[in-house]
Design goal:
Number of strands: 11
Radius of gyration: 24 Å
CATH architecture of the largest domain: 2-Layer Sandwich
CATH class of the largest domain: Alpha Beta
CATH topology of the largest domain: Ribosomal Protein S5, domain 2
Number of domains: 2
Helix content: 10-25%
Shape: flat
Strand content: 35-45%
Low-confidence stretches: none
Largest sheet: 4 strands, antiparallel
Order of helices and strands: EEEEEEHEEEEHEH
Structural class: alpha+beta
Mean pLDDT: 86
Number of helices: 3
Distance between the termini: 67 Å
């Protein structure tokens, strides 16, 4: 016969000789799924669409993911509710990851990129300077793993354009 004992929060089953048997309902190997990438939601916008019966409300989400070790990506997606939109944007961001060449905690040289009306200038900074960047550029370079950098955003206030422009500038880095 088997008898069931409760020790702490773990149920144990034992056979006649007192040896424990794993309960089929207990999965010892279960661990919550942990991603190597950190996610940041940059923007959530409510959008509406005119239809025959009135308005359809939806949400668009801009998400940036990175591992703080040279990999970063962005995702932009929409759905009828916020949580679905975030999940879709994170999935899109993980498909859109690019690898960036770092030189220690900074970048190797100055770089400039243009995307639409957005322009971004990224400059290396001495150790201990920190991230001198505004808005979406700060989040992108932080999730990429850059610790010391100076930047300037010119032309556009649009977060999506600035994120795309920043990633384009980071991709131009050599070595």
């Amino acid at each position: 016969m088997m008898e069931r004992r409760k020790e702490g929060n773990i149920n144990k089953m034992e056979n006649k000789k007192g040896r424990s048997i794993r309960d089929s309902r207990m999965n010892q190997n279960f661990m919550p799924k942990v991603s190597e990438y950190e996610e940041k939601v940059l923007e959530i916008k409510r959008v509406a669409k005119k239809i025959k019966g009135g308005n359809t409300i939806g949400f668009t989400v801009l998400v940036v993911v990175g591992n703080r070790n040279g990999k970063v990506g962005y995702g932009y997606d929409k759905a009828r509710n916020v949580s679905d939109a975030i999940q879709k944007a994170v999935a899109a961001a993980k498909k859109n990851i690019v690898e960036i060449k770092l030189k220690g905690k900074t970048i190797s040289h100055e770089t400039f990129a243009k995307y639409g009306s957005a322009r971004v200038v990224l400059r290396p900074a001495p150790e201990g300077t920190g991230i001198i960047a505004g808005g979406s550029v700060r989040i992108v370079v932080g999730l990429a793993g850059i610790k010391d950098i100076s930047s300037k955003v010119l032309g556009s206030k649009n977060k999506l354009s600035n994120v795309r422009c920043t990633i384009k500038a980071l991709q131009k880095l050599k070595e």
